[in-house]
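Consider the tokenized backbone below.
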């Protein structure tokens, strides 16, 4: 059982770089630099991620129902893992002199859809990993392992690949490895292939050690497809009568969307509003990922101690205050108070 849990944690370690390196801290700010217009970058990025999110929202219940009826989740994880690798590796094509925003967003969406759906079906295996009283700790620890994986991949990216647009040097003051050309931003574009390679390596323990529990009433996938849609329709029609589940799904939709907004636009906001470079955003990301790992681990323990609902309520209120604070932070003022030109107060406020 212990090896099975470690294998499940390995998926978080493998998949986290898509969030850390691509969605928030390296690739998104790079797109802002290339488009040279913060608002245009945020708009394009929003449409791309939003389109992928809409497709995920429409397909997730259907695929989930099919997986439940077939009793098989591993085939879905294999398929969406392949999409993760193809989409992320393809971002190498985002060259400055031939930048095609439509192609880039399509590739990014393929990888994002793969990451999200693979995560959904991996999370569905959580209840089989231990007794209910331990699931909070298992989940929180897995999230922490994922953050640590994101941190290591981020450090590798900043130290050896991602170049500063002005100097062409990485965070430790060297040229990008393997002769990558800084003038073509090859060091920064390597974030796509690096994310794909990282996933391929660290997903191996998951597929080796995590075995799917047998479901006695499982049916072939072809039959599951025919059965899933009618049953899903019945469940959705009955949903308003189940007030607890209906309230959970509705509130979860809103706060998860808000979280996705913070993840998606955090790096772009810092680049577009505060004028941070890719390396600046990456430096901030080190602190963000470290604190994320620590508090994911603590959150799992708190979940076991206090239960999930009090923790969700506390963190939603805290994140609401954080989001409002970010809106009132710009290069010219902080919380409506003007700051001197060149002041680092906005940067420090964003860090906090």
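A designed sequence for it:
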């Amino acid at each position: 059982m212990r090896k099975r849990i470690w294998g499940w944690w390995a998926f978080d370690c493998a998949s986290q770089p898509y969030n850390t390196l691509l969605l928030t801290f390296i690739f998104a700010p790079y797109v802002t630099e290339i488009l040279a217009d913060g608002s245009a970058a945020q708009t394009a990025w929003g449409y791309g991620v939003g389109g992928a999110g809409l497709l995920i929202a429409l397909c997730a219940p259907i695929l989930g129902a099919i997986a439940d009826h077939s009793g098989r989740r591993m085939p879905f994880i294999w398929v969406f893992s392949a999409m993760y690798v193809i989409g992320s590796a393809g971002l190498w094509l985002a060259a400055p002199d031939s930048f095609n925003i439509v192609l880039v967003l399509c590739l990014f969406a393929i990888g994002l859809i793969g990451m999200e759906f693979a995560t959904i079906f991996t999370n569905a295996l959580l209840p089989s990993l231990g007794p209910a009283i331990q699931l909070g700790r298992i989940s929180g620890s897995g999230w922490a392992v994922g953050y640590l994986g994101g941190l290591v991949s981020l450090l590798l990216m900043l130290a050896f690949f991602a170049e500063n647009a002005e100097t062409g040097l990485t965070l430790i003051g060297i040229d990008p490895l393997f002769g990558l050309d800084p003038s073509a931003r090859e060091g920064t574009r390597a974030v796509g292939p690096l994310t794909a390679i990282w996933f391929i390596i660290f997903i191996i323990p998951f597929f080796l050690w995590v075995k799917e529990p047998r479901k006695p009433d499982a049916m072939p996938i072809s039959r599951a497809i025919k059965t899933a849609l009618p049953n899903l329709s019945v469940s959705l029609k009955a949903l308003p009568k189940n007030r607890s589940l209906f309230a959970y799904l509705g509130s979860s939709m809103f706060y998860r969307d808000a979280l996705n907004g913070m993840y998606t636009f955090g790096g772009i906001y810092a680049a577009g509003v505060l004028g941070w470079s890719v390396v600046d955003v990456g430096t901030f990301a080190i602190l963000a990922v470290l604190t994320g790992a620590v508090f994911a681990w603590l959150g799992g323990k708190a979940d076991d101690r206090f239960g999930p609902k009090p923790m969700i309520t506390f963190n939603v209120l805290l994140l609401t205050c954080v989001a409002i604070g970010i809106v009132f932070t710009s290069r010219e003022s902080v919380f409506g108070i003007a700051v001197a030109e060149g002041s680092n107060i906005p940067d420090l406020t964003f860090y906090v």
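The beta strands are 333-334, 337-338.
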